[in-house]
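Students often ask why we bother encoding 3D structure as a string. The short answer is that it lets us treat folding as translation between two languages. Here is a chain of 383 residues written in the first language.
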Amino acid sequence: MSPLALIWKELWHHRANALLVAGGLALAVALLTVVRLTSVAAERETRRVMRDLGFNLRIIPRDTDMEAFWANGYSDQTLPLDTVPRLAAQHGLFVTFNHLTPTLEHRFPVGGRDALLTGLGLSVIGPGEKKQPLGFVIPKGSVYLGSEVAARLGAKPKSKIELAGRSFTVERVLAESGSDDDIRLYTALEDTQALLGLPGRINEIKAIDCLCLTADQDPLSQLRAVLEKALPEAKVLQLRALSDARAKQRQMAERYAAFAVPGVLLGGALWIGLLTVLNVRERRAEIGLWRALGRSSSQLATLFLGKAALLGLLGAGLGYALGTAVALRFGPDIFKVTAKALEPDFALLGWAALLTPVFAAVSAFLPAMLAVAQDPADSLRAD
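And here it is in the second language, the structure alphabet:
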């Protein structure tokens, strides 16, 4: 009888044990699938939520008067606009900085009082990333108004306002923020440059750091070292509280995956090993009879390990289907911002089909070796 036929007969004859092993493997694969899909979703959700909190780096001209900067909220010096593409072209820069967004900001008279006029250029993002603008993309000739400025002017969406003799369409009135954004006007960068008489100039590059390190890990030294080489005429400031929140959230998601995966693997290995040991103990006399009838150690090892591998393949398919169904059912309720991006990972099915049989065979290896090594006489001796 061929080894495969013998394995099938073995599975059928001891189907209760086989179902327990397959069920344990399926549960382990299901848990790993859920952990994998939710870990990816958690990382994606964290990136999106943290990104939506705004920029946490401010790159300004090195010669900025810092007392005036903190008093006014913007630099009194400028840089050429081509600083941004020049910075983005530096090799490996996007490992440290991302979403490089040129801005020009200055106080500007609006409705008889000063407001903060801010021009936003297009963000430059790392290669391979989807274009997801951070902040606003404002058409030329349009303006976003902070709530206080809108109230001062009596402006509403689609109404017209005049700035320095130029007409602008109010694209949006922003909700009250409780910050200086309430007295801010956002326009396209080119419009702000024209209004301030500073064509081709910017006074800040807003960005997000990609290091995801907390304050005690000293990310600012690394950021400044990179910028010193890439753009020596500028310096970087980090919004520490925001950066810490971003880093701690990202690190928490990574620790979750690092804890969950080994735990599931260990539990699955112990379950398979225990069932195999119990199966061997219950069948000592049967194994002894096989050995007495001339079955070799290699044949018995093939039987036990082949059975484990076949059950591993079955458990991989069932576990992937169950884990994916659970993740897709409950994931969107957990990850509301990126719910639409939650989808099956068919590469994970391939890895499960490849590795689960190997994992099952390795977990059953020691009990199987104990079975084939025992003396037939001892196995057949009456208790």
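Translate back mentally: Residues 240-282 form the longest helix (43 residues). Keep this in mind for the problem set.
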